[in-house]
Specification:
The chain is an all-beta fold. The chain has no helices and eleven strands.
């Protein structure tokens, strides 16, 4: 089992920066990648980016590229989402995900409870 806990969400102003954290614990040896998603009211969950567990290769979705970055502190088993130049449309619940692949198939998905980010104009 893998446990995923996000933190850091809060109310900020347009143009502010914010860093979210995600602590990943438990049976982490089999994790393929960890990533960030978000879900705004009335919208589907949106993929923001991921970092591979072993090589720490990162990928950021085009929608937030240039403003969001993902990093990880291996010693702390913590992944971060640095968000800069925040906009009102970034308002959403942000979720951390730990994914285990078997070949090309997703074997397990582990989700955190989400952390609310609200950007006011």
């Amino acid at each position: 089992q893998v446990q995923v806990v996000e933190s850091g969400g809060k109310l900020v102003q347009t143009g502010d920066s914010l860093r979210l954290s995600c602590i990943i614990t438990g049976s982490t040896a089999g994790i393929t990648a960890t990533g960030w998603f978000r879900q705004a009211p009335g919208k589907e969950r949106e993929f923001l980016g991921r970092i591979t567990w072993s090589r720490e290769n990162t990928y950021i979705a085009d929608a937030v590229k240039g403003r969001f970055t993902i990093s990880r502190d291996t010693a702390k088993n913590t992944m971060y989402l640095q968000m800069d130049s925040l906009k009102a449309e970034d308002t959403a619940v942000y979720y951390c995900n730990a994914r285990i692949f078997q070949g090309l198939s997703i074997l397990h998905d582990y989700w955190g409870q989400g952390t609310q980010v609200t950007v006011s104009e």
